[in-house]
């Protein structure tokens, strides 16, 4: 068990076994939440920041590495069992990757504190829309077709991808609600596509972080395996229980997001 405490290649020394177990549990929980509705970063990133000796940039980079394992697993699981339409998902993912990379660059210039109040207001609007329209997202009833549908989908991918690069928490949740509100997908269908797009946004951010040398490989691999297991379980559960289950978890995660980011805004004042 000695390798667990030293984590060769992680760049950190004398990590306690209890810390590694905490990271594993956080990865499992985050992978499950991400697979169902997104927002796993609410659990995973704060836990990473508690590790002694880790810098915020190292935590962000390693968090993205862990997340990409989980989103890849859940995306494959959704594809095999729910068969999302790739004609919409793949263009969205490509545009989202560009947006995420651009957002990561902007994040080095604009403080997150400037963006967080706007995000909190948007999340409150999302929560009210979902709570007051219980039938929204129950069934897929597309509002547009052809080029209009694809254009709106790509604009969603670009804007949410940019947000993921700049800030990050709740990216999957924003993707899902945007596809439900603006395109007419059910929560389950939107969640299946969101995993493919979220995979691209994680990849875009990693493309920015990898050359910087901030990625902690040993820790990232442990986090990634945990994320994969959680993502697989979460995706299968969402598919088996359907859109109503995803909607309930969505409301819970968005509520926690509002409290978490709202606290940051109040604390900054």
From TrEMBL:
Main location: membrane
GO cellular component, one term: plasma membrane
Family matches, as InterPro entries: TM_pro_TauE-like, TSUP
Keywords assigned: Cell membrane, Membrane, Transmembrane, Transmembrane helix, Transport
Membrane-topology descriptor: Multi-pass membrane protein
KW Transport (keyword) present: yes
Intracellular or extracellular location(s): Cell membrane
Transmembrane segments: 20-43, 89-108, 114-132, 144-163, 169-188, 245-263
Keyword Nucleus: no
Protein family (similarity comment): Belongs to the 4-toluene sulfonate uptake permease (TSUP) (TC 2.A.102) family.
Record-given protein name: Probable membrane transporter protein
Source organism (scientific name): Neomicrococcus aestuarii
Organism classification: Bacteria, Bacillati, Actinomycetota, Actinomycetes, Micrococcales
